[in-house]
Write a structure and sequence with these properties.
This protein has about 220 residues and is mainly alpha-helical. The protein has a domain at about 35-155. The protein has helices at about 10-55, 65-105, 110-115, 120-150, 160-165. It is elongated, with a radius of gyration of 29 Å.
Length: about 220
């Protein structure tokens, strides 16, 4: 049975408000996951690079393209600093919005509604900048590793290779849990898709005009 209900302006506004609320929730969740990813990857990349360089180039004085390594470290540090700075800017933006809301809703200051939040605009700049710093750092690190592998190939001895074999008597890692579909909250380790808009049913076509009465 086709729904022939024609939505009023108020009902459409309520549907839009729910859609906007869901959109804001997903956007906030994705932004939080993005910030965590930049912090985790940057700190992990710095720590990993410091540990494996001695295996890649035992004599660091003989390493090629040291500038690429230094550039990668600097860019990852900038990514960390930018991400941490975006947290502080986010606090400033939230407090500014609270002051605007107080002026608009309680003090009836209509000018507060059109006032721009510069702190909020800064967040939209800092987040992609942090991601760009991390990506550029990864490019420089890949270049450094590739060029040094070409000049100083790593050789693993048989004894070293056998150390990575898992024996029956060794402690085994625990089994991974299989996530049940539909169980628990949505994951935030990847971008969330945008909410789907609810399609309003189309009103039935108007009936054709009645033929004029014959005289």
């Amino acid at each position: 049975m086709t729904d022939t209900h024609e939505y009023s302006v108020e009902e459409k506004r309520q549907i839009y408000a729910k859609f906007l609320e869901e959109h804001n929730r997903r956007e906030t969740s994705t932004s939080d996951a993005y910030d965590r990813a930049i912090l985790t990857f940057s700190t992990g990349a710095l720590a990993l690079s410091l540990t494996f360089i001695k295996d890649l180039v035992p004599d660091f004085s003989q390493a090629a393209h040291k500038g690429a390594l230094l550039a990668a470290w600097i860019l990852w540090l900038l990514a960390l600093m930018t991400t941490i700075g975006s947290f502080l800017v986010s606090l400033k933006a939230g407090r500014h919005e609270v002051r605007r809301a107080n002026r608009y809703y309680l003090l009836e200051d209509n000018g507060a509604l059109k006032e721009k939040n510069r702190w909020s605009s800064a967040i939209w700049i800092l987040n992609p900048v942090a991601g760009s710093f991390f990506a550029l750092g990864a490019i420089f690190m890949v270049y450094f590793v590739y060029t040094n592998l070409a000049e100083h190939p790593m050789t693993n001895s048989k004894s070293d290779a056998t150390k990575s074999v898992v024996h029956v008597g060794d402690a085994m890692p625990p089994a991974f849990l299989t996530r049940l579909s539909g169980a628990g909250p949505e994951r935030t380790d990847k971008g969330l898709p945008p909410p789907q808009m609810t399609e309003l049913p189309k009103a039935p076509p108007a009936p054709p005009p009645a033929p004029p009465a014959k005289k």
